[in-house]
Design a protein that fits this description.
Blueprint lengths: L22 H10 L4 H12 L5 H7 L5 H19 L7 H24 L7 H34 L11 H22 L5
């Protein structure tokens, strides 16, 4: 969506479902995919909001420092769309500071765990548990942004139903990630050596 066109990116062909995503579904998808769904979420929202090159923007999330500028860009785009539609209450700065704070905290925890390995747990199991905890924290800023996006889409697409059930692709992603997770847990408890 450009700054001059409040409906930029909104003039797509007729859709069967609204682009809104229930917060519960977003949370389950991010958590069950161990964060991988976040990349699709960013790509889809850049695409749906009419930002140029959503694929390149998503690839840029893997580049340190650049990723924070790109995250703020999406949050700011959501804020502009909400303001143009008369939706108040969403702050891109607040969402970004929460996102940045969670990531700084996650990095600090990882460094502490790596430096002072806890006694009594295997290192891999400790890191896996910390990973799950930090992933739960990383979902919070995105839930806040998704709430604003849902308000935008309810204004832009008032007659379209919101898809509550998981799509086939989402079920496959979650199934593959859960399989990999269980394989990792199995490897943690498998006997080493012969």
């Amino acid at each position: 969506m450009s700054d001059n066109d409040p409906q930029g990116g909104f003039g797509a062909p007729p859709r069967a479902w609204s682009r809104a995503t229930p917060v519960r579904r977003l949370t389950v998808l991010i958590f069950a995919s161990f964060g991988l769904y976040q990349f699709y979420w960013f790509w889809r929202n850049w695409r749906d909001l009419g930002r140029p090159h959503p694929g390149w923007r998503t690839a840029g999330l893997f580049v340190p420092i650049l990723n924070f500028f790109l995250v703020y860009d999406l949050f700011r785009t959501v804020q502009i769309a909400a303001m143009r539609l008369g939706i108040a209450g969403f702050s891109a700065a607040r969402a970004f500071l929460a996102f940045l704070g969670v990531n700084v905290f996650a990095t600090a925890v990882w460094l502490m765990i790596y430096r002072w390995k806890p006694k009594g747990f295997s290192e891999s199991l400790s890191l896996l548990l910390i990973d799950v905890l930090l992933l739960a924290l990383q979902i919070l800023p995105l839930v806040y942004v998704q709430g604003a996006l849902n308000a935008v889409w309810s204004e832009v697409e008032p007659r379209l139903p919101v898809r509550v059930a998981f799509s086939r692709g989402e079920v496959i992603l979650v199934g593959a990630c859960l399989f990999l997770w269980w394989m990792q847990v199995f490897m943690l408890f498998a006997p080493v050596g012969g």
